[in-house]
């Protein structure tokens, strides 16, 4: 397949181009897009075939779950997650930003990871798509996380539908992952702001 690359100015995003990318996601396609941490590979959470494509294309182990990128706090309630008082405090302090939190689902007690990025293009894409977006890093598993569109192309050109090129990302380090699904909070991945999260939880 041919991967289309579109350039979007991060300071003045073209909403028409973002709408095109959002339509691809709504229609079951895969779009690589910038966040403040690294470029992510986005698909609709509700489209099982698209999610399967991510695992296949990235060569990602099936036992590694995918976190969801959201633009609305209400999604946590819609997906029936247990937002504890501690989780609420963490969200208020660090969202939007480079922190993924794992919450327990009230339905099956399984942990689900969520992140609300602060990157404007990412937020607009999620909003226009109208669905939570699963978005692991846009690279082959085991390779360095992509900091720009060129990095994405080296791994995924011809395998995904679209790349949003918005230049170099702000941080270049993946998000910190904090597990809040159990009795005790636990940092599972150091990522961009682990020290700040530890200090907050003291």
Provide tags for this entry:
11 strands; alpha/beta; globular; 7 helices; 11-stranded mixed β-sheet; DHBP synthase; 22% strand; 202 residues
Please report the number of helical segments.
7
Query: What is the succession of H and E elements?
Result: EHEEHEHEHEEHEHEEEH
Radius of gyration: 16 Å
CATH class descriptor? Alpha Beta
Q: What CATH architecture would you give?
A: Alpha-Beta Complex
Fourth-level CATH superfamily: DHBP synthase
Strand content: 15-25%
| Assembly status | single chain
Q: What is the number of domains? A: 1
Taken from the alpha-carbon principal axes, the silhouette is: globular
Structural class: alpha/beta
- From the 3D structure, determine the CATH topology: DHBP synthase
Mean pLDDT across all amino acids: 96
Largest sheet: 11 strands, mixed
Q: State the end-to-end CA separation.
A: 50 Å
Total strands: the figure is 11
Helix fraction? 25-40%
Low-confidence stretches: none
Descriptive report:
The protein has 202 residues and is α/β, with parallel strands linked by helices. It has a single domain (4-201), classed as DHBP synthase, CATH 3.90.870. Helix content is 32%, strand content 22%. The protein has helices at residues 15-26, 48-58, 74-78, 85-94, 120-129, 149-156, 194-201, and strands spanning 4-7, 31-34, 39-44, 68-69, 81-82, 99-105, 111-115, 133-134, 162-165, 176-179, 186-189. A hairpin with a 4-residue loop joins β2 (31-34) and β3. α1 (15-26) packs across α5 (120-129). It is globular, with a radius of gyration of 16 Å. The mean pLDDT is 96.
């Amino acid at each position: 397949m041919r991967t289309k690359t579109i350039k979007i100015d991060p300071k003045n995003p073209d909403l028409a181009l973002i709408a095109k990318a959002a339509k691809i996601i709504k229609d079951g396609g895969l779009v690589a897009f910038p966040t403040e941490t690294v470029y992510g590979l986005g698909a609709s959470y509700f489209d099982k075939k698209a999610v399967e494509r991510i695992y296949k294309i990235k060569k990602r182990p099936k036992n590694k779950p995918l976190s969801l990128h959201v633009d609305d706090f209400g999604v946590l309630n819609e997906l029936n997650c247990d937002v504890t008082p501690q989780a609420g405090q963490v969200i208020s302090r660090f969202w939007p930003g480079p922190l993924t939190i794992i919450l327990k689902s009230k339905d099956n007690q399984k942990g689900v990871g969520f992140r609300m990025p602060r990157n404007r293009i990412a937020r607009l894409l999620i909003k226009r798509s109208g669905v939570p977006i699963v978005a692991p890093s846009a690279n082959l598993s085991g390779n360095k996380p992509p900091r720009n569109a060129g990095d994405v192309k080296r791994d995924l050109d011809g395998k995904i539908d679209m790349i949003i090129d918005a230049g170099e990302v702000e941080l270049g380090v993946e998000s910190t992952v904090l597990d809040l699904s159990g009795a005790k909070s636990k940092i599972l991945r150091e990522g961009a702001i682990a020290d700040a999260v530890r200090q907050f939880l003291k």
